[in-house]
Design a protein that fits this description.
5-stranded mixed β-sheet, alpha/beta, two-stranded antiparallel sheet, globular, 13 helices, 345 residues
Length: 345
Amino acid sequence: MQIQSVGIDLGKTTFHLVALNGHSQVVIRKKFSRQQLLVFTATLPSSLVGMEAGVGSHFLGRALREQGHEVRLIPAQFVRPFVKSNKNDYCDAEAIAEAVERENMRFVPIKTEDQLDLQALHRVRERLVSRRTSVINQIRAFLLERGISFRKGPASLRRQMPEILENADEKLTARMRRLLDFLWQEWKHLQLQIESLSEDLEKIANSDAACVRLQQIPGVGPLVATAVVSAIGNGAAFHKGRQFAAWLGLVPRQWSTGGKPKLLGISKRGNPYLRKMFIHGARAAVLRVKREGSCLGQWMSGLESRAARNVVIVATANKLARISWAVLSSGNDYRPLHPAVDCSS
């Protein structure tokens, strides 16, 4: 029995496998548990195996690769056009087996355990930051209902929270005062957790060679550097920096027909967290990079003269993403261009 490709539809406890021969005919169609699947694939000859990129796919991909199979992870949206007739688990597995054979298909690199650990740190930190923002907004809303308001940003509120809770002149009931104290303690606890995770990320960024090189780029700090490494590793999944920037959604969305190109706002595709990190880093770079002594600064100044501030920030994020890919893929340090070099590109 000749097997051309294998498609596996992933589930929480059950996995559906379909194998195709050279004529795209189904030769194997089975359902397994996780352990049964690994036992079965260990008996198969080395094959091309495809799976949708998702939760659990990186673990299974590493396990199948250790068995000698060539494993490729496919974004779910690229598998959908290959699904024929009604959608079910076996049809999905067959569609994956067909899609994985396409040489021009876009695949997702299998992440290492270190990358997954780093990604988990970022996801937990992001959840805590979101929760802290929710707590701050709730405190503001409760105080505003009592006629107490603060200027934008958490710094002013954080400084005056102890005084609000202790000041008897404020028209707060005992119940509301206890509730605000509860929220204040939650805020401080979340802040300590966020700072602890940030310290862990900084330690990793200072010890990892790729992160150290990335931090040489203006606007790229420990958070951005570790987020990039956890997402794309050495950048081998992209052939050039423009592809990486497009994957992040930092390029204009195109709607063209009849030979008339029309560019809209940025596409916002790809990894939204990493895109947000690059935009935050670009905002810091626009504010702090010295314009006279660097090629990047001169490019920013030229762009600011003809574009709005937010456009400049997003364009800078695009450029930082492309520079980051170049640093990762080449393995070299960041080398800023001399102002005498043409900076228009």
